[in-house]
Structure formats: structure tokens, C-alpha cells
Amino acid sequence: MRGKFVRALEFTPCILGIAISAGLVIHSFGGEIKDYIQSVKLEREIEDINNQDFSTPAILAEELKEQISDTTIKNNPPRKEKELPIKELIPKEEEVPVDRYPISDSLLRSGYEFDIPNFEEFAITSPDLDAWIKVDGTNIDQAIMHVTSSDKDQDFYSNHDIYGNAFKLGTPYLFKDNISLNNAEEDISDVSVIYGHHVKGNRVFSDVSDYISQAYYDAHPFGVIYTPDGYAYKVTFFAGIITPGGVNSEIYKDKFEDEEAFELFVNNAKEKSTFKSDVELSFGDKLMVLYTCEYTGGSDSRYALFGVLEKQYTNELQITNDDTIKSQKTR
Fold first, then answer.
1. How does strand 173-174 pair with strand 286-293?
2. pLDDT digits over 40-78, tens only?
3. What is the rounded CA–CA span in Å between residue 33 and residue 68?
């Protein structure tokens, strides 16, 4: 009997350690169980163990842990997360209005053969390249530059080429205050003005002044402006006027405050136009002016060719992608 009692004493520190460890488990899993309940339970468990065979203390320790753990879980079941309705579990898509200016496929459907410039070739050598304009049947096939940096003045490209090298013929360029044409249609300026020299031999923008003739207009009623995003603008010409040089209210308007201001600008151009057109315009349309020298009205005379812009798809894949985006926005 004494020997058995001595053996029990030998295991007592181990058992106490196990019990204390088990107590921590209780505290960890059941923070709401009162300390005195924990103490009483441990004392009883220790008494039971002292009365058992201690030949396998490791097994006893595991049994003790399991018993205490089971009791703890029963008394402190895990909290259930609040169940949300299925609709609340699905993230809501941000409501984005359908584009105000749907992109037209009129040129693509008509079989127009797009001749898209390789803008990637100029990405490093010509960082100011903003767009490219082509008018079929004319010599207008020119880059459009756009100065945005402070180290170049507004007229930098009047005597520089596309690479920024000195060049007396210059390169057509977008008015510095205009917003880049390489944007969504609704984001560009209400009136974009593009300057280009009138050079003998039908170079640069000299063909623009030929729109003085009704016959020339009838033969070339529109042009195409390509942008680096892969889309294009159809530029439908509706008026052409002879005007004094420099930026003036007849050719440029930063923003149309209302429909009246828009109609006043458009009607002035149509009334003074050297040719007649049946192009109808609406408030909200984006306009463009090709601007060059003209010599019938004096040494300081200019010709301004007005057009209305309409964003165009240039391939079927763009239509598919755009339809997918719009369907996602309107779900």
C-alpha cells in the first residue's frame, strides 16, 4: 500500500501540470466558464486519476484533455454568424450609366477600308503624337500633334516635324487648350481646332482651302481621324468659312454653356460657309475645325473647315467587347 502511494506521489507533479494545462484549454475555449467551476472540476479529475492505474499516464492525459474539451464545447457552443439573405451576399455592381455617345459602326458596315497608323512605332520617338487625320481622295494624310508640356510653346510644331526636329513645313497640331482626342468622345473639347500650314504642291493642309469649292466638298464630304486607342472619328464636314487669322470666336469655343450658344456658333458657320451642306447637328455634338492659310481674302486670311465628330468602331472585335461591357453595366 505504501509503495502504491509513493508511486502516486511520483506522478502527482505531472498530473498537476496536465491539469493546469487542461485548465488553460478550458479558458481558451470557454471564456464564459467561471473560475470556481474550473477549479472544482480540476480537483475532481485529479482525485479520479490518483485512484487509477498510472501505468499509462500519457493516455490518461489525452483522455483528460478530451473530456475537458468536450465539456467546454457543450457549455460554450461556437457562435453562428448572422445569415445574410442571398441578395446581400452577392456584391452589388456599381451602377454606371450607358455611354452618352454610343460608338457608331456606320463606316465599318459600309465597307470603309480603315488605314490605321501604327501608333506604337511613334510611342517613344513622338510622345506628342495625339492622332492621325486622313481624307480620302485628297493629300490630307497627316499626324496631329498635341503640346502639353511646359517646355514647348503652342506653335512648336508649326516648324517642327513629328519627331521634334526643325522642319519649316511643320506638322498639324491640336490647339494647346484642347483636350487630347485620344479620349472617350464625351470627354474631349466641344470644339477641337487643328492647325496646319498651306504649302504649295498640295502639302500639309493646303487641300483644306480647296473646300472653298462646292464641287470639292461634294467629292470629299468627310474625313477620318484615327486615335491611339484603336478607334476612329468620322469627321463629317458641314461648313467652311474665310476668317481673319488667329483664334477668334468664329472658330473656337471652349465650352458651349447651353443650346443657344451652340446654335449661334453653328449657324454663324453655316451662314458664312463657302459651300452648302445638309448635315444636321444637335446640341452636345463634338465639333472640329481644320484651320490653314487662305490667300483670296488677304495676306492674313485663313480658311476654317468645320466638321462634326462621330466615334467609330474599326473592327468587329471592338463591337463585341463594347456590347459585353454595356451589358455588364446595365445588369
1. unpaired
2. 454 455 445 444 444 444 443 444 445 544 544 445 555
3. 12
